[in-house]
Amino acid sequence: MSVRTVRAGLVATLAVAAVTATALTAPASAAAVGTTAPASATAGAGRHDATRQVIEQVVRNGAPGVLAQARDRYGVWNGSAGVADRTTGRERLPHDRFRVGSLTKTFVATVILQLEAEGRLDLDDSVEKWLPGVVRGNGHDGRRVTIRQILNHTSGIHNVTADPGFQEKVFGPGFLQHRYDTWTPGQLVAIAMAHEPDFAPGASWNYSNTNYVLAGMIIEKVTGRPYGEAVERRIIKPLGLGATSVPGTDPRMPRPSGRAYSTLGGAPDDPATRVHDVTELNPSIAWAAGEMISSTADLQRFTRALMTGRLLPGAQMRELTTTVTGPEDPSAAYGLGVMKRRLSCGTEVWGHTGGIHGSGSVAVTTRRGDHTLAANVNGDWAGGLDKILDAEFCGKKPDRAAPAPVAPMAP
Fold first, then answer.
1. Distance between CA 132 and CA 129 in Å, rounded?
2. How far is the C-alpha of 217 from the C-alpha of 128, rounded, in Å?
3. Interacting residues of 171 by C-beta distance below 8 A, sequence separation 6+
4. Side-chain-side CA neighbours of residue 181 (13 Å)
5. What is the pairing mode between strands 293-294 and 98-99?
6. SS3 of residue 236 by DSSP
7. Cβ(189)–Cβ(213) under 8 Å?
8. Partners of 69 in the beta sheet?
């Protein structure tokens, strides 16, 4: 199969795929990094030093703040650097909540697989069976696309967030005018249907947020209830994810939380680039492709529970972890709402990333669930998630020859 590199999907999340700018943001001073672990964990002392150094470097290079939590056999470690609020200077706290963007996809795929385990749908059902006439137009044909293909991004269905008009209104300067607009799933799919498919179903691979909008619609058709209720009843409540929510159209962030910042596409070398507070937004712009809110602790618990088989029977675990990859980057592959990634030291981790306005997140675990990490950066231009992964799982410390911090600029 000739496909685009799947690793691109690791960062091609809802907002990151569309907002490509780097900001001239005010570097915050690195906050002290705290740890929590059992008293007997002295044997693991220093295990997270590389991670601490990398998150501090991410802040020195321009990110407002970074939050990370790791869990291994020695216990739980919390790390933070920078600030949660650039105005007040409040530091990021371990219990802070943030928008997780495309990590929502992992929750949605899990619900679909649970429904399959119950015999209520089949991964090889056509999209047309559940959503008649929805995937039609300009060469799209839901009769030829299966649920499996929308979950592993081999459907060929055009990505709604690649539409120029949508990008301008949602990710560019138009965001400030339209941040509270409500988008329906039907509207999002219709935008995608105005374009030709990227390829014939099953012929290639391309990350498409439209796929998971359709997945959410299928959950609602099968259950007769909002997809968010299925996520809450099947995953959030059983796992006790008290900081995790599906906000619907509510633009507010639950407490405790910090602020989220974006340049709205401003170029990194443009003196006029400004940083905007984008904390409040109507998350229907992402819906089942990226609307959820969570914390580092909850993301760790969910990812570990999923990959160790607590949420799915064996047959569905095999489906979840059957991946698609391409010749361009064999180190990364996409399953059903999860990514398998081989890091620089050879360690394999499973999970997903998520990007939405002002927020970049990652949650991964080893396949056995004995080492997990979740992290968030509250500036959508900042990057650094790949380096955090390599630091935590490979002990790779920051490059001292890294670029100097970007010039400060007030919001």
1. 6
2. 12
3. 15, 18, 19, 161, 264, 265, 357
4. 16
5. antiparallel
6. helix
7. yes
8. 78, 374
Distance (Å, whole) CA 187 – CA 405: 41
pLDDT averaged over every residue in the chain: 87
Q: Which domains does the chain have, with CATH numbers?
A: 7-394 (3.40.710.10)
Cβ neighbours for 224, distance < 8 A, ≥ 6 positions apart = none
Locate 124 and state its tokens.
Answer: 């090889």
Under 8 Å between Cβ of 236 and 214? no
What are the two backbone dihedrals, phi and then psi, of residue 106, each rounded to the nearest 5 degrees? -65, -40
With tokens 């990151």, the residue in question is 16
CA distance 319 to 324: 11
Quick one: pLDDT band at residue 330, thresholds 50, 70, 90? low
- Report phi then psi at 33, rounded to 5: -100, 125
Residues classed as catalytic: 102
8 Å CB contact between 361 and 100: yes
* pLDDT tier for residue 328 given thresholds of 50, 70 and 90: low
Long-range CB contacts for residues 42-45, cutoff 8 Å, separation at least 24 = 43/74, 44/72, 44/73, 44/74, 44/75
How far is residue 247's CA from residue 162's CA, in Å, rounded to a whole number? Answer: 24
